[in-house]
């Protein structure tokens, strides 16, 4: 199996610094793919790691939290076995990321209260495994149909899941940004795990809420159906900015080729 992938993070129109971050890393070759480059390569025995973070906290602490989380996740995944990571090992790696960010926030007063969302995926042996904390998202597209894989760990997300609120209403509620889970805010964190078997042509989107807060699922199908992932990713960023660009915007696109 081969993958094509593209990642991009954008400041948006209203923020002065970017607290988002992403990583694309080949765990077999132990190499990190440079940002904003389309790559196509075979999937090795240990798979390929993709992740998006959206940091929070004052004094640039959010930027530090997201960067630290991604750095730690890469290191933890590299320490795993030479085979495709099992779900329990993936979960342990994310738990280690949480402990690292939590510990750093305790050691440095200026970083107190920092945290980050984390949506990470490993593609290996024709399957994707997803670990999720917070309200960044993972979407899956096949045959022109787009589905949201993750569920926001927020008050608004909880209300949508219970049927008390629609997705459209959730975008307008003041509870939209109130997270129930985030990496680094507490000593322990609840991690959601999902898995999907992949076939040729499948497309995976990981994104921060700078995109999902502006572009609903109906607006994703067109760009995700495009043949060129860079064109698709840039179109999604442009659309979020056209609709206000209130937050940093990060997209990672992955296609089975």
Structural features, described:
The protein is α+β, with helices and mostly antiparallel strands. The chain has a single domain (2-151, 181-256), classed as 4-Layer Sandwich (Phosphatase 2c, domain 1). The protein has seven helices and twelve strands. The protein has helices spanning 61-78, 87-107, 155-162, 167-172, 209-212, 221-224, 229-242; strands at 2-10, 20-26, 31-32, 39-42, 48-56, 115-124, 127-133, 137-142, 145-148, 192-197, 203-207, 249-256. The strands form two sheets. The protein has a six-stranded antiparallel sheet. A six-stranded antiparallel sheet has the order 3-2-5-6-7-10, with helices on one face. Helix 1 packs antiparallel against helix 2. It is globular and about 45 Å long. The protein starts with a strand and ends with a strand.
Short description:
This protein is of the alpha+beta class and 257 residues long. It has helices spanning 61-78, 87-107, 155-162, 167-172, 209-212, 221-224, 229-242; strands at residues 2-10, 20-26, 31-32, 39-42, 48-56, 115-124, 127-133, 137-142, 145-148, 192-197, 203-207, 249-256. The protein is built from 7 helices and 12 strands.
CATH homologous superfamily heading: PPM-type phosphatase domain
- Tally of structural domains: 1
- Classification by helices and strands: alpha+beta
The whole-number mean of residue pLDDT values reads 91
Strand order of the largest sheet: 4-1-12-11-8-9
The CATH architecture category equals 4-Layer Sandwich
Number of helical segments?
A: 7
Poorly predicted spans? none
The CATH topology corresponds to: Phosphatase 2c, domain 1
Gyration radius, in Å: 17 Å
Largest sheet: 6 strands, antiparallel
The topology string of helices and strands comes to: EEEEEHHEEEEHHEEHHHE
SS elements, strand count: 12
* CATH classification, class level: Alpha Beta
The proportion of residues in beta strands is: 25-35%
Shape field: globular
Report the span from N to C terminus: 7 Å
Q: Share of helix among residues?
A: 25-40%
